[in-house]
Amino acid sequence: MDVKQFSAWSKWTGRIGTLVSILLLIAVLDGLLSRFRTPLDHFSCLPGSHKAVSGPLPEKIEHPGELTYRSNSKDIQVVFESVQTGFWLGGYLWSGTLSLGPGIEPGGYTLTVQSKKGQGERSASLFHIEVYSDPTSLQKDSKSFFLRGLGINPWRAALFFIPFIIVTFGVVFFLSHKIETLLAERGEAEVYRIRKEQDGFEIFFGLGSKQGIRQGTGLTLINKQGGPVASITAREVFEGYSTALVDPELNVLPGFMIRL
Cα-flanking dihedrals φ and ψ of residue 54, to 5°? Predict the structure, then answer.
């Protein structure tokens, strides 16, 4: 393939990578928004399910064994596994596993968590458990667009997109390097950086001493339409790139070309 073909592939691969990156961002935002829209004291479950849950505590607890719970259904059980300080909001949190019996009826239930030593409502936290009859009902009531509309967990979607982003931008990097190599072989390079100076613009391009450039080598500056703009000379020369000074009246942009 020639430079034109490599450029076309790089362009379309970059667009695909950008699209997948946008989808990744949407999935992450959807997951975060659905989490914030779901109250901390609300759990959605199916009969016979086991779910990792957590919730705030009104007082400091040193060990999960100090906690107890009450529910208005004998089919609801909780195993407390740890207590910790809340990362985002401070305070104290408990975490554990919520288990529902397979015979529990769909509907709303309550769960009260408190210290075994605590007394009264002020030492207890009330949680609401919504039991759905089937996965479809649970999905339709989800706060997540991905889960409600597409049946896909937004966090799983995000993990699915990440490898594609890595691959596409890896391909773009490879193609860009290939384009630079082909251009350098025919004595051309793209202006990839422009720095304003007192007496003009210093431009950077990927032709250096290994391509035969020396300080004072004559070069042609070409615009994006392929037309010559000015004749310039190499200012500083390194192995893989060089710089040149351009008249401040010239509207030089990244993407302009340099030709020997």
Answer: -155, 165
Classify 167 in phi/psi space as left (phi over 0), alpha (psi -120 to 50) or beta: alpha
Q: How far is CA 212 from the centre of its chain?
A: 43
Q: Kindly tell me the sign of the dihedral angle through the C-alpha atoms of 149, 154, 160, 162.
A: positive
Determine the Cα–Cα distance for residues 90 and 85; give it in Å rounded to an integer.
6
CA 107/CA 128 separation, integer angstroms: 10
Whether the predicted model's global pTM rises above the 0.70 cut: no
Enumerate long-range contacts of 232-241, CB under 8 Å, 24 or more apart. 235/202, 237/208, 237/209, 237/213, 238/208, 238/209, 239/208, 239/209, 239/210, 240/206, 240/208, 240/210, 241/189, 241/204, 241/205, 241/206, 241/207, 241/208
Determine the average pLDDT of the residues in 62-87. Answer: 83
Taking the C-alpha atoms of residue 239 and residue 44, their distance in angstroms, rounded to an integer, is: 63
Please, what is the end-to-end C-alpha distance for the chain in angstroms? Answer: 23
Where helices occur in 190-253 by DSSP H, the ranges are none
pLDDT at 209: 85
Residue with tokens 């290994």: 210
Within the chain, residue ranges assigned H as helices are: 3-37, 135-140, 145, 154-185
